[in-house]
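Predict structure. Chain length: 275.
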Amino acid sequence: MNAEVSSSISSLVIEVRERVAIAILNRPAARNALNQELLSNLVRFMGDVDQDDDVDAVVLTGADPAFCAGLDLRELESGQGIRIGKLTTEDGRWPRCTKPLIGAINGAAVTGGLEIALSCDFLVASERAHFADTHTRVGIQPGWGLSFLLPQAVGLRNAKYMSATGNFVDAEQAQRMGLVTEVVSHEELLSKAFDVAREVVANDALALRTLMAGYEESVGLSQEDAMKAERRRAVEWQNNNFDQSQIVERRQAIIHRGSSKIDPEIRSAEANSDI
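Prediction complete.
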């Protein structure tokens, strides 16, 4: 997977630019429902991009009008094709990407589509985004981590509400619940997600991936064990990866970036103050 190259793997369209991989679920006529082909391509992509030295962040979205409508029920009904258990890791989750995975939710993310969204590190949503868990309405059980990831994102009561009712949650409500970090206009979604990815890429890649892995490691640990694990990682980093020669340059870059984010009126007031 080379930078600045766009390619199509059947139901999954992939583009890489500026060290960001953009993957688009591409079965729009089926609302990007997950058949065996798309599932296999997506899992393969996750493995490939994780090993790609030209990529530091990933954006996952769907071809309009939906993000992902879940499993392809026609294929599931036929008893052929979809084999859920073969497409996850031993702990039942999607293959984890050590690089930040940003979900750009452009429409409905339902059931299996919701589980894929939950497997992203964070979500940016279009105003047209909707989320629903309809597993029990279909008469199936989640197999990709929903019973753990959904309450982690929105709290146990909200997760139970979504699963028990099957009701759709719109983008604004999803943001209030903590499921998405930002809601933007539909036309701005992909560019906004790409901008966020570029912010990610601007970090020390190894430092960020180590920290993100730390979040994953800490899930399920007691506070004491999580603190011990964090201290262990910090010592290992200090001994093996810390580059003191870059501190001054990076500090100046952080100060410049911070000042550029502050409202001009606030900067003007600060400049005229005695502080």
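Summary: Residues 2-6, 268-275 have pLDDT under 50 and may be disordered.
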